Amino acid sequence: MIKNNTKRFFFRALLVLLLCMIGVSLFQASQYQIISMLLAIGACFPIYYRYEKKQLNSKELVLIALLTAIAVLGRFLFYMIPAITPMTAIIIISGICLGSEVGFLVGSLSAITSNMLFGQGPWTPFQMFSWGLIGFLAGLPLIQKILRKSYWFLALYGILAGLFFSFFMDVWTVFSIDRYFSWQRYLALLVTAIPYTISYCFANAFFSCLLFRSIQKKLQRILIKYDIK
């Protein structure tokens, strides 16, 4: 399994969050949209920084690129069906099988890569962070162990991932309207998005359970065959 360094990641992430909070206090409320976008970008930075400094195995890079491509393909093939996509499931499975850092990379890279087809914008950093965090948490040792053992927990994680993604992206939607956060508007968006959120949660749970064992077996063979650790 590709090694993790979660303590270092959390330390750097907390440092970035602290800097962003200081930035918020220095700007007027009208700039919260900009600060929130910088916060999302900054939260992605620690993982990318570590991989920039790390002596990477080219085989590991190819594997990450392959999983990212599969996730993007999953989003593209199902784009005609609102909220139904296997992309999040593939991100979750990547985290479970290869660890939290790879899960984060596959999630965030899938967001920015697939948006080359669906449209880039200020929402992209939010998608990168939210999908990346979904993959990262799935790869944490304790959660990873639980999800490997039971389809019920895997389905539950898919549902929670869908709720988190929808709730988090609605924060961006509120900011995008007039650069000001309103709880009333946020709650209204959550209510109107209920059908979409339910469909997305169901898709995450269904595709995670459907694809997990087959992808896990193939990844295990690749890790052994090419000696990726």
TrEMBL record:
Transmembrane segments: 9-26, 32-49, 61-81, 87-112, 151-175, 187-212
Keywords: Membrane, Transmembrane, Transmembrane helix
Coiled-coil region: none
Keyword set includes Membrane: yes
GO MF annotation terms: transmembrane transporter activity
InterPro entries assigned: ECF_trnsprt_substrate-spec
Keyword Chloroplast listed: no
Top-rank taxon: Bacteria
The protein's name in its UniProt record: ECF transporter S component
